[in-house]
Design a protein that fits this description.
globular, 8-stranded parallel beta sheet, single chain, alpha/beta, 10 helices, binds zinc ion, 38% helix, 18% strand
Length: 278
Amino acid sequence: MNFYDAHNHLQDDRFGGRQNELLAACEKAGVARMVVNGACESDWPQVLALAKKFGGASVLASRTNQTQVIPSFGCHPWYLAERTPDWLKNLETFLDKIPSAVGEIGLDRWKPDLPYAGQEEVFLAQLRIATERNLPVSIHCLQAWGRLHELLRDHPRPGCGFVLHSFGGPAEMVPAFARLGAYFSFPGYFLHGRKRRQREAFQVVPPDRLLVETDAPDQLLPEEKNRFPLADADGKPLNHPANLPAVYEGLAEFLGEKAESLTARVGENFRRVFGEIR
Ligand SMILES: [Zn+2]
C-alpha cells in the first residue's frame, strides 16, 4: 500500500538531524510522499535541502520506492514576530527555487499570549501568492474558524484547492469549507479517546476531500497505536513520521471502512491536490 502524508515538519530541529534514519523507516512502512511544511523563514533552507535530497527529481534518478519529500514554504502565525522585512520576497524566492506548495500559514486565537493583530494580513498575503501560482496551501486554524471562512470566501483561492490541516473545526462548517475547495486532513492525535468531537467531524467530510497526516514531530497518536517510539534530546516524546499507516488504520476503523479502500481513496485525493508538484 502507498501512504501519503499531507502534513509534517520533517525539518524540525527536535529530530536532532536523524532525517535519513526517519525516511528509511518511512520507506519501509510504505510512505510514498510527504508534504514537509516550513513554518518560518529560518527553517525554509532546511525544507529546501530535504527536498533537494529526497524530492521528485532525485528520487527518479535513484530508487522508485524511496519516500518523496514535497517542500512547502510558509509563515505560521506562531512565528509572525520572527519575520524579516523581506519575508514576502524571500518566500517567492524559495517558491521559485523548486516545485513546492505554500504553507504552513494560518490564524490562531488559541495560543496564550499570541497577538492576533497582523495575522490576517500575513495570511492573506500568502494566500494571494498561492492563488497567483495555483499552488496548494496548507492552513492551520485554532479558534478562528468563522473568520477563516469569511477570509477564504471573500478572497481568490488556489484553483487546485487548499488543505485545512488537522481540521478541528465544527462539523457544521464542513460543507461551507468544502464548497470553497477545502480538503480536510486527519492527524493521529484525533485517535485519542478525548478527541471525539474532532473525530466525528470527519464523518461528514466528503469522500473526495479527505486527507491524512502525521504532523510529525507533533500530534502523537495514542500509546497503543504508536509503532515508532521516539524522543528528543531531553527525552520528550516525538511523533515519528513512519506512524502514518497507523493513522490511516485508526481512521478507517473509526469510519467503519476497510483500511485498503480508505488508503486508496486518500491517495487519489492527495495526488489530485499535490500530484502536480514534482
Ligand atoms: Zn504543522
